[in-house]
Amino acid sequence: MRIAIQGELGSFSHEAALRMAEEMDAMPDSAATIVPCALSVDVFRMIADSAVDAAVIPIENSLAGPVAEHFDLLLNQDVAIERESLLRIRHNLIVLPGTGLESIERVFSHPVALAQCRVFFDEHPGIRSVPYYDTAGSVKQIVEAQEARAAAIASRQAACQYGGQILLAGIEDNPANFTRFLLVRRAELVRCDPSADKVSLAFTVENRPGTLVEALQVFARLGTNMTKIESRPVVGEPWQYIFYVDYQLSTTASADSILEILQSSCSMVRELGRYRSAALDPVASPGWPVS
């Protein structure tokens, strides 16, 4: 099975893709082939062209918020969500083997990862943070360049991928750091999960008083628990918005009813997937799971 990701091999997306492949019933005895892409739009293009079987994309982080571009791509491409996974984000300080902390002058990583490790930089004022395009790419760069005075912040997978050494593990400021990943496939290939208990959909409403309230009341009337709502602007139509909603699925009939009612009252409705909600990993320390 070929799975596309955005970013370098060794990224958190790579780690999430391997985990989701292992969890899939269709993958009992074989490993997935991870296909890295420079841009998210390239990931979705590979799905459309059948160059890969699926893609694993981050949709939101518990601290940094949503990945806006991926909401747009989900809606505008002929894909559907097949499953989700929650990955605990553990940031590690990775160096060339044998490098000590006293030698490090610069630390490279994605700006979001750097921002999530402020305490480390406060405790080491002599070390400068340097934004880089990708967490795993920063490890790749320091290893290939043999930068003995530099380090990177990235996943354990990145250290394994490029031969780096984890000098300090778990340097993130907040242990409640999770990223929700989605496995998406071409819509016609998505398998219906009989244990699905979650639905993602998108809709637009007319720009007049009360239309959004009317749409949201549909969920309340049917006793459905909405777990997320996100708005995104409609490209080319200033001040018009698409609303993305996740809700808990009680029965298939209730999901069909919600879709039918919304279709009669909304300008546009599209279901993006029915799938099983992800559970957190087993707890390794009080209160928090491990990745």
Keyphrases for this structure?
291 residues; 9 helices; five-stranded mixed sheet; disordered C terminus; D-Maltodextrin-Binding Protein, domain 2; elongated; six-stranded mixed sheet; alpha+beta; Alpha-Beta Plaits; single chain; 3 domains
What does this structure look like?
The structure is a single chain. This protein is an alpha+beta fold and 291 residues long. It has 3 domains: 2-88 and 177-191, D-Maltodextrin-Binding Protein, domain 2; 92-168, D-Maltodextrin-Binding Protein, domain 2, CATH 3.40.190.10; 198-275, Alpha-Beta Plaits (2-Layer Sandwich). It is built from 9 helices and 17 strands. Strands 1, 2, 3, 4, 5 and 11 form a 6-stranded mixed sheet that branches. It has a 5-stranded mixed sheet with strand order 8-7-9-6-10. Helix 8 runs antiparallel to helix 9 (252-265). The protein is elongated, with a radius of gyration of 21 Å. The protein starts with a strand and ends with a strand.
